[in-house]
Amino acid sequence: MYKTLSLVCMSLILAGCQITQDTEPMTRPELALVSSPEKLQSLDDWLKLALSYNPTLNQAKEREVQASLALANSNAAQLPDLKLALDHSRRKTNATLANGNNLTLSFSWELDWLGKLDDSEQQAVMAYEQAKQASFQSEQTALKQVSVAFLTMIQTQTLLDLYEKRAALLGQQLQMLEENYQLGLTSALDVYLARNNVASEQSRVVRQKQVLVQAFSQLQIAAGVKSTQGELTPAMPTFNAANYDSLGSEMALNRPDVQAAWYELLASNKASAASFKAQFPNFKLTASGGYSADEFKSLLKGDFLWSWVVNLSQPLFDGGRLANDYARSQSNERIAKSKLQDTLNKAYGEIEVELANYHAIGERVGLAEVALENARMAQDLSFSQYQKGLVNFTTVLDAQKRALDAEVTKITLSTEQRQQIINLETALGRPLSALFSLNLES
After folding, report:
1. Is 440 left (phi over 0), alpha (psi -120 to 50) or beta?
2. N or C, fewer C-beta in 10 Å, the chain?
3. How many Å apart are CA 35 and CA 160, to the nearest integer?
4. pLDDT in tens, 335-388
């Protein structure tokens, strides 16, 4: 029996040694490297990367895990505690040296007669729901940032293609003017103006390439990844048509920040109730049984002892700690209520502004299309009249500049219109995955 007991003790000691956490050398965190640029051509690809690597989203997911564990602990608080203890003592009184060995199995259970533990469990449930909503909001924010950055990159690439095409066209125009100048058909001033125009456009191309690098960097940061060098030809995502004309007053209630604030208020209410009930008596049942002997090897052959206790305790003086805890929980509840009101006010204001922006940019896109059509017609007409000697070359340059500005405005507004839809959908609390018909499960 002594050998068996020794083996049990050694097993417990070794098990305790194995519980120690393995320590690994800390390394500096880096962006996840994506070595297949060909797989990053669509918005779907980038959104999937963001769901896996976005640092802010991963922090929110960890907080959701922590809330889940806190909820599990709260559930366990209503269950009985069962402990096994083995202790050894040695005492010396005068000339006597005495040993004591005890093996005890103890049981304790708090009777939740006022519902205090149930309130604490409900508080944990509400806190977990709040963490879930906060995690969902972080997910929507990450998807929004990636979507906006992706659209910005498409716009930048489109403008670069436009500038390169215009630079090539102006180069051909300059060549024609130089040939005409050699024949005495064109003045030197026109040639100088054309050369200036070509140089300016080539400078714009160089600048736009820098902007493209910055846009790609922002896209990588939003997704939380770093891609190897490679040619990207991102495709414009398809937007599902939405009807924003019949939005009711309940439109803000689906927002994750509003939901999170609501669950925070419920959690603070339950915490206040638990603090109030902590001021009243609590019942606790404890029982224990085990063996006691002077010699360790004869522990299981020693006296068997048992006891049980019903405990009723009422705090009489604690320096006001329980009363202060209750007052603080009530203050937290008032803060949560004010925060919910503030969140609702901001939600309604944000939706109103984003809705107005959505309608305004729709009108601007329509006007930009009209302006672009007229600018192109003026550009073709001015060059035709210049070849006939009806207008000077300055008129041609002015018409070309107006046409370019109109086309840039049209491209920019089209991108802003799509980004505005994303902003409005986010303000309404709708999942962005539904907006793009994305399958983010795989």
Report:
1. alpha
2. C
3. 25
4. 999 999 999 999 999 999 999 999 999 999 999 999 999 999 999 999 899 888
Q: Closest Cα partner for 77 from 289, 282, 321, 307? A: 282
Whole-angstrom Cα distance, residue 303 to residue 299?
8
Residue type, 22: D
Residues 409 and 371: their CA atoms lie apart, in Å, by 9
Residue whose tokens read 């003086």: 317
Q: Could you tell me if 219 and 146 are in contact, meaning their C-beta atoms sit under 8 angstroms apart?
A: yes
- What pLDDT is recorded for position 17? 47
pTM, 2 dp: 0.82
Tokens found for residue 242: 């939405």
